[in-house]
Design goal:
2 domains, mainly alpha, metal ion binding, about 375 residues, Peroxidase, domain 1, two-stranded antiparallel ribbon, Peroxidase, domain 2
Length: about 375
């Protein structure tokens, strides 16, 4: 299996979403498999234009608690002004880079946002999802992570290249912090809330395939709560965090089993039957009617029985979480406030210190 990126000395290295960059096509095509080669690790990373197949879009993985730093300890380490003296223009540099990535492909925002979730929920927020190990034992090669879109990796590493091209900032900003900043820009530039990002994470040195554990797309609320509570989230925080599904789309294999579900809106079921019946492996559907805008339409969809994934629709079908869905569906401001609190909390999970991590020169390889 080959990574969703390769090295190229002439270009900067470059979840779920769809299609090709808008500069190449006006319509959103289905995804195709990609094959990329790893070359010399000293070359500046670049991204292959082919795309990975769509896949699992759940945001979290089960984590081994011993591997993660307690949130209280992390909160003392992280601060929004961590780079105020070493890289004062950091956030402006990252924003310009993300704007460019989003202009090239509308996949970039949802892909980068979900990449951040998948990183934090496994080994902590340490950019271990970016590592490519020569022996093939790394996180991205776990089957559950094969859904992570190349455009997400591209957005992160394009931002890293932009930061390191600034002489004052060069090799001073961790890949983990860049991932957190890119995730914020993905939300904000898609119409969502702006929020301060706590910084000061160091990059991890370890990435293993077996460290990844993802819940199934048909989990019950009890099962979802068990997974999220392992990350330190309450049920309401989980409902807010899953609102990130307002961006992007899902692949037919991950919701096709629900088309006969009586809880699904009949008109949606008919539409999905046509989409997936003609192209079961390559077809996709949007999570909500505004797939490139960060808003509360995801929750209104759930109220109407139009959730794609079982793990999404259960948030409304189960009475214990329905009130949170209703609240966010009727009050976008409440959703934004709670989402910011939840993603900030996510960003504190397992942050590495100078003693346990490093600042990678190239995000794909430990120094």
């Amino acid at each position: 299996m080959q990574p969703p990126f390769h090295s190229d000395s002439n270009a900067p290295f470059f979840f779920i979403a769809f299609g090709q960059p808008l500069g190449r096509t006006k319509k959103l095509p289905t995804a195709s498999c990609h094959a990329l080669s790893r070359r010399d690790r000293q070359a500046a990373p670049s991204y292959h234009s082919s795309m990975a197949s769509l896949g699992l879009v759940l945001l979290v993985a089960v984590v081994v608690s011993a591997a993660l730093m307690p949130p209280s300890a992390v909160a003392q380490q992280l601060t929004p002004d961590y780079y105020a003296s070493t890289c004062p223009n950091l956030e402006a540099i990252v924003r310009r880079s993300v704007q460019q990535s989003m202009a090239q492909s509308q996949i970039a925002a949802p892909a980068a946002l979900r990449l951040f979730f998948h990183d934090c929920a496994v080994m902590g927020c340490d950019a271990s999802i970016m590592i490519v190990n020569s022996n093939g034992d790394d996180e991205w090669r776990n089957t559950a992570n094969q859904s992570l879109k190349p455009e997400g990796f591209q957005a992160i590493l394009s931002a890293k290249a932009a930061v390191d091209s600034n002489q004052q900032c060069q090799y001073k900003v961790s890949c983990a912090d860049i991932m957190a900043l890119v995730a914020r820009e993905a939300v904000f530039l898609s119409g969502g809330p702006y929020y301060q990002v706590e910084l000061g994470r160091f990059d991890g040195r370890v990435s293993t395939r077996d460290s990844v554990r993802l819940p199934s797309v048909n989990f019950t609320l009890d099962q979802l709560n068990a997974f999220f509570s392992g990350l330190g989230f309450s049920q309401n925080e989980m409902v807010a965090l899953l609102g990130a599904h307002t961006l992007g789309a899902a692949d037919c294999p991950f919701f096709q089993y629900r088309i006969g579900d009586p809880s699904m809106d009949p008109s949606l079921a008919s539409q999905l039957r046509g989409t997936c019946g003609s192209n079961p492996s390559g077809g996709f559907a949007f999570f909500d009617p505004s797939p490139v805008r960060f808003d509360n339409a995801f929750y209104r969809n759930l109220q109407g029985g139009r959730g794609l994934l079982g793990t999404d629709q259960v948030l409304y079908s189960d009475q214990r979480s329905r009130s949170a869905v209703d609240s966010y569906a009727s009050n976008q401001g409440a959703f934004f406030t709670d989402f910011v609190a939840a993603i900030t909390k996510l960003g504190r999970i397992g942050a590495k210190t100078a003693a346990t991590g490093e600042i990678r020169r190239v995000c794909n390889f430990p120094n």
